Each structure stands twice: as C-alpha cells, then as structure tokens.
Amino acid sequence: MALDSMQEIFDKIEKTGKPFWEIVLDTDMDERQVTRDASFEKMRKTWRAMLETDTTYRADRKSVSGLVGGDGRKMRDYAAVGNTLSGGYISEVISVALCTGESNACMRRIVAAPTAGACGVLPAVLIPLWWQYQMPEEEVVRALYVASGIGAVIGYKACLAGASGGCQAEIGTASAMAAGALTALRGGSAAQIGNAVAMALKNLLGLICDPVAGLVEVPCVKRNVVGAVNAVSCADMAMAGIESRVPVDQVIDCMGDVGRRMPVEFRETALGGLAATPFGLSVKQKMKQNKN
Amino acid sequence: MLDIFDILGPVMVGPSSSHTAGAVRIGNMARTLLGDTPVTAHIALHGSFAETGQGHGTDKALIAGLLGMKPDNLEIPRSFEVAKEQGLQFDFSEVDLRDAHPNTAVLEVQDAAGHHLKMQASSTGGGRIRVDKLDDVDVGFTGAFNTLIVHSLDISGELAEVTRELSRAKINIANMSLCRSRRGGTVLMVIETDQKIPPVARTLIEELPGVARLTYYEKETD
C-alpha cells in the first residue's frame, strides 16, 4: 500500500477519519513491517538529527572549494540587531536554511530531505517554529510524517533527483513537503495541505540544477532559503483559504513532465546555467588543478 | 521501492547522497563481502565519481566505508588519517568503463590473511547502491535485503540444495540470481532474503558439497 497520489491519502483520511500524518505512519508500518513505536522513534531520531545540525553549526567551517561557509552566522548576526525586512520568524528561517545547507557542504551530518542538496528547507521552517511556540516534540514529529508522505507521492509520481528533474525536483519537492508540514502544524485540513503543496511546487516549476563545478555548494545552499521562504508563504496562503486552481496531483505530474523534458545541461551535469558562467568555469578549472 | 525514510533520510554526512553516502555504503559492502578490514585497496573511479568525486569527498567516503564507518559517521572527512592509523594502504585511479552507471567505483581489496575481492558497484541515487560485478561476474544486488552470496561448483542440483536449506530455516527468498563465469567454472548465487539468515543455516549451506565459499551481507538496521 504505497502512497501513489495525494488523492489516495485524501481518500484514506475520508474513509478512516485519521489525520494525514497517521495515514503515512500506517503506510510505513505496513511497508517496513515495523511497530508503531519503532516507526515513531525512528522519525524522532530523524528530527533530532535535524536539530543537531543546526545547534552544532560553526561559521569557521569551509567547504572543499572554499566557496561555502559562514553565511548562516552573518544572517543570524544581522537578524540579532532586529532591523530585518523579513521579521523574526522569516529571518530565522533564512538562517537555519543557510546553516544546514552550509553544514552539508562542509561534510557535517544532515538529514537528506528529500536530498542532501535540499536538506535545509524542512528544518528551516520547523526549527524556528518549534523554538518560538515551545511545541511538544511529538507535534513536530507528526509534521515530519506529513512531509515524508508528500515526498513519497512526489517521488512516486514525478522525481526527486536533480539529475532526473532539475532543482525543481529537489528544492521544489522539499518546499512542497515543508509547506504541507507547516499547514498540518497550524491545524490545516487535508485539502489545505494539498493546496499548500500544489502552490509551493508550482512556484518553483522549471528551476534548473546547475551546480558550479558539479558541487553541492553554489547555488544549492541559498536555494534552500528560497524553498523555505516559499513554503512559509504557501502555507499561510493555504491557511487563509486560498486554493491552487490546478489540483495538486496534476501539479506533481506536471513537475515530472517538465523534468523529463528539461535539457540534460540543466540536470546536475554542470554543463549549463550558473555552472557555465565564466565564474562557474573558473571554479571548475581551479578544482581540476587542485586534483592534479 | 522508496520508503518514507528514503524520503526523509538518510541521516548522513554531506554533501551528496549519491557521491558521499552511497560511496560509504559501497566501501562498507566491499569490506563485508571481503569478510575483514582490508589492508590494501586499489580503487578506480568512473564517470561522475572521477569528475567530481574529490569535491564531494567520494574518495574519503569510500575509504571510510572500507574502515567500517556508516554514512552518518562524523569521522568520514578524516578517513584518510584513520586508514593510516589502522594500516590500510590505498590508492585511487580513474577508469573509463563501458556501459557503467556514471557513479561507479571498482574496488580491489585484500585482507591480512590474503583474501582478495574485486567489486564493481554504483551509487544509484539517494544513497542507494547496486553491486554490479563481483570478481568479474555480473551480479545486481543492492543491500536493501539480507544477501547471501554462494560461490559454488557448476554442477546440477546445487541451487536446489542451497534453497532447501533456506526453506528448512523458514527463510523467504525475495530475489535471486545465478551467474557463472563459464561452463564448468565458478558459479555465483546471489540470494536476497526477507529474514536474517542465522549462522547455523549459513554453516549448513557452507558445508554442502560443491559450495566453495559463502559470504553474507546483513541489511543495515536502525
């Protein structure tokens, strides 16, 4: 009983009266043949690993190419002065997205969500909310089930890898997962979760994967910010009662279709986009020289 | 098939699930199939592993795996130093393979007792891997199941003997393949099972006439 579409999840919610997260939990118990506790505890560990990445962040770490490191600290210092345009919660969302993305580039421990390159999006929206509202851990863990259920559907119907569908498959999916998780946390209905997912994915349709020198550094780290902030706005829109005109499953199919038709230069090969700019090529050249 | 912890996970050391986490798993698989920590390792990188491997720490990740580290071990960036401390000598080269996945490595490893293993494996995405060749014989298993690898003589009835022992131990086979290098040569049975295969069942299979060697990979657990 894999999760094949959002509609399938909605139907199960209708039929059983269970919330979104529990449908995903039931599926995991069935698929992996594990108990409810075993599944929940594994998800709790996943959450704690996300938190740990953020709390052990250090600004002095640098990535292999030297291009990434320290920006998370800059954002936090700037926000601490209290004069940001985006305000308290969003400033912290930006900070966590940067810290987690940089940690990944610096070979620290992260949770791929759904990929390592997009690992900052989900923690970025959840961690500041968790601090702000002092939520019980169980609530956040439930939100992670919602996120993973959404990711499973997108993985089944479309794709999750930059090599298959470009950045829209990585950051786009992560953003959709985060938007759905936030909507669930705020008490949104299944339909509202679906709208948040659809809007988040729509907004990032067509985003290419163009990593400079083929590394998960530029522009990946900062795209985590875009995915996270997009998720927040889509969750708020969904909670306001704004609907996606295109139904969520059709949006997901569409993302897969755009991905398949995307030129190979824009699918993680580092042959196009920012990777092919003079700057991008100079970094590639420098990495090559270091190797020899 | 993906489960939800393939979506939210793995918990891993960055920067890339395919080029880092998958590479650790490939190293780990080679270590397990060798049966011991290797003392020498010659590693050839193909395709994207050769192109961007260094920037993704693929080299460090493969060595970390050979040393028994898991993908979430924070020592992965230090694996070259750990290898030195533990007496593992290694070298890297680049290779251009035909019809291989872009993220492929060929590892030739040897342990202190002189056992030797050559393994070609690819990192297929999200940290998942596939072993493509063992000692130049085509295989295709992923480590997503408990995996029994039986080297046997090319004689009739051998497969039935092995599966009978599994059946007696009430072990269900999920996937199975049988390949040989040539007629009358060595046969490689790769049997993926739902349940763990207890030591006693493995010993019974190992003692079958016609079975030359047996290796066993137990699925990663939480």
Main structural class of chain A: mainly alpha
Uncertain residue ranges of chain A: none
Radius of gyration of chain A: 19 Å
The N- and C-terminal alpha carbons of chain A lie at a distance of: 51 Å
Q: What is the H level of CATH, i.e. the homologous superfamily of the largest domain in chain B?
A: D-3-phosphoglycerate dehydrogenase, domain 3
| β-sheet strand percentage of chain B | 35-45%
What string gives the helices and strands of chain B in order?
Answer: HEHEHHHEEEEEEHEEHE
Query: Averaging pLDDT over every residue of chain B, what do you get?
Result: 93
Task: Give a written overview of the molecule.
- The complex is a heterodimer of chains A (292) and B (222).
- Chain A contains 13 helices and one strand; from the N terminus they run H-H-H-H-H-E-H-H-H-H-H-H-H-H.
- Chain A is mainly alpha-helical and 292 residues long.
- Chain A has one domain.
- Chain A is globular and about 60 Å long.
- Chain B is an alpha+beta fold.
- Chain B has two domains: 4-135, 2-Layer Sandwich (60s Ribosomal Protein L30, Chain: A); 146-217, 2-Layer Sandwich (Alpha-Beta Plaits), CATH 3.30.70.260.
- In chain B, 28% of the residues lie in helices and 36% in strands.
- Chain B has seven helices and eleven strands.
- Chain B has helices spanning 4-7, 17-34, 48-52, 58-66, 79-86, 158-168, 199-206; strands at residues 11-13, 38-47, 89-94, 103-111, 116-125, 128-134, 137-141, 146-153, 173-180, 186-193, 211-217.
- In chain B, the strands form two sheets. In chain B, strands 3-2-4-5-6-7 form a six-stranded mixed beta sheet.
- In chain B, helix 4 runs parallel beside helix 5.
- The longest helix of chain B is centred in the first third of the chain and has 18 residues, at 17-34.
- The A-B interface holds A 2, 24, 27-28, 31-32, 38, 42-43, 45-46, 49, 63-65, 103-117, 119, 122, 144-145, 147-149, 151-152, 155-156, 160-161, 163, 177, 213-217, 270, 287, 290-291 and B 1-17, 20-21, 48, 51-52, 54-57, 72, 74, 76-77, 125-127, 222.
- Strand 1 (109-111) of chain A pairs antiparallel with strand 1 of chain B.
